[in-house]
Amino acid sequence: MNILVINAGSSSVKYQLYDMKTEFVLAKGRVERIGMDSSILTHEVDHQPEVREVSEILDHTTAIKKVLDMLTHRKFGVLRNIADIQAVGHRVVHGGETFSRSVLVDAQVKLEIRKLFDLAPLHNPAHMMGIAAVEANLPEVPQAVVFDTAFHQSMPASSFLYAIPTVLYRKHQIRRYGFHGTSHDYVSKKSAEFLGRPIETLKLITCHIGNGASCAAILHGKSFDTSMGMTPLEGLMMGTRSGDLDPAIVPFTINKEDLTLNEVNSMLNKHSGLLAISGVSSDMREVVDAMNEGNANAKLAFEMYAYRIRKYIGAYAAAMDGVDAIVFTAGVGENSAALRTEVCKSLSFLGVHLDETRNAGRSPEPRRITTEQSRVDVLVVPTNEELLIARDTYELVKGLEANTR
DSSP labels for 133-198? Predict the structure, then answer.
C-alpha cells in the first residue's frame, strides 16, 4: 500500500510518499509560497538530484495537483498514476478533547476539526485546506487525520487542568492539551524497543527540542504530563517563544508599553526565546557559534535554554517517582551535543553520567550516550512523525477494508 502523508500549512504543503510494505520513503518534498505567482515546489527521490520548479500556485488544491503531477511525472515520478496512492494521512495540530486517537476523515470529523479553529487558529484551518485539496484531487481515496494533541489525552486532570475558575474549562475548554504528541509517541516506543523492555514498565522523559520545544513525562507508555499547554507557547524557552512566564507580565507590559493584546502575543511567540536573549538568532547553531566566540548574551541564552529543560526533567522525575531513561529528539535535541552536555551535567543526583565520546557521535539510529555506570539511560532517538502518521493511516485503512469485505 502506498500512503501519501501531508502536512499543510497556511502557505505551504509538505509531503512524503511511503511504500508501507517496507516503510520506505519513495519521494518527499514541499510546496512553498502558495498564493503567489512564484510558488516553489521541491521534490526529492532517493539517489536522484533534487527537482525544483517555480510556478504560479494560488491555492492548496492546485498545490496538491502539482504534487500528484510530480509523483507521476514520466522522468521524476515514482508512480505510474495517481491510482497507485491508496490512502492519504494528514497531520492536524489540534484535536481538542474530541480526538484521543487517529481517525478516518468523514463529514463529522471535518465538522469537529472546524469547531477547534479557535484553539489553533494558525494551524487547523490550514490543515482543513489540505484535506479539502486532497478531496478535490483524489475524491475516492480514504484520508486519515493524526492529531498532535491526541497522545496527551491520557493525562490525568491533575496534570491538564489550570488552577483557574472551572467554568472556563467547562465553557471554553481552557486546559493543557500539549503538542508534539506524534513525536513523543514515536520516540517513546522507539526507546522501549532500543532498551529491550516493554514500554508498559518504563518511566520516560522525552525532550522534543527543535525551534519549538516540549518535554513529556511518559508513564508506562502513556502521556502523564507535558510542558506545552493550551497553546504551544507554554513550557520551555524556544527559538522565538518565551515559554513559561508570570501571566501578570502581559497586562503590565500592555500598560507600560502601550501595546495591544495582539502585539504582546506576537512578542511572546515571535520575538522572545533564544532570539530575544541572545540578540543573535533563534537558531541554536548560530547561538552556540556566537557563544564560542565570546558573546555573553549568547552564552546567557544557551544557559537559560538548557536550565529550563533540566528543570522540567527534574520535575517529571519527581512526578513519576523516578525515571528510567531521558530521551532527546528533534533538530536541536538530536544534533547539539553541547546542549545535551549542558542539560545533563547537573543530573548526577538522578544517577546520570554522560559519556562525552558517545555524546559527540552522530547516528541515524537510536543510541545511548551515557556510561555503563549510569543509573538512568540518556538516549538520542531521531524522531519520525511522518512515519507514525503513515502507520496510523495504514492501520485505519486496513480496518476500513476489512469492514467492507
Answer: HHHHH-TTS-EEEEETTGGGGG--HHHH--SS-HHHHHHH--S---S-HHHHHHHHHHHHHHHTS-
Among the options 19, 37, 106, 148, which is catalytic? Answer: 148
Task: Tell me the per-residue pLDDT of 152-207, one tens digit each, with 9 for 90 and over.
Answer: 999 999 999 999 999 999 999 999 999 999 999 999 999 999 999 999 999 999 99
Q: Is 333 known as a binding-site position?
A: yes
Of the chain, the end-to-end C-alpha distance in Å amounts to: 17
Is 130 known to sit in a ligand binding site? no
334 is in an annotated binding site: yes
- Condensed to tens digits (0 to 9), the pLDDT of residues 53-70 reads 999 999 999 999 999 999
Strand partners, 318: none
What whole-number distance in Å separates Cα of residue 57 and Cα of residue 54? Answer: 9
Contact 274, 301 (CB under 8 A): yes
Strands 325-329 and 203-209: parallel
Query: Residues 105-130: pLDDT tens digits?
Result: 999 999 999 999 988 888 899 999 99
Dihedral over alpha carbons 77, 82, 87, 88 (to 10 degrees): 60
Q: Is 211 annotated as a binding residue?
A: yes
Is residue 246 annotated as part of the catalytic site, yes or no? no
Among 330, 383, 390, residue whose Cα is nearest residue 146? 390
pTM of the predicted model, to two decimals? Answer: 0.93
Q: Is 389 exposed, middle or buried (0-12, 13-18, 19+ CB in 10 A)?
A: buried
Per-residue model confidence (pLDDT) at position 122: 81
Q: Tell whether 332 is in a known binding site.
A: yes
Alpha carbon distance 405, 403 (integer Å): 6
| Number of residues assigned to the chain | 405
Strands (E), 260-344: 325-329
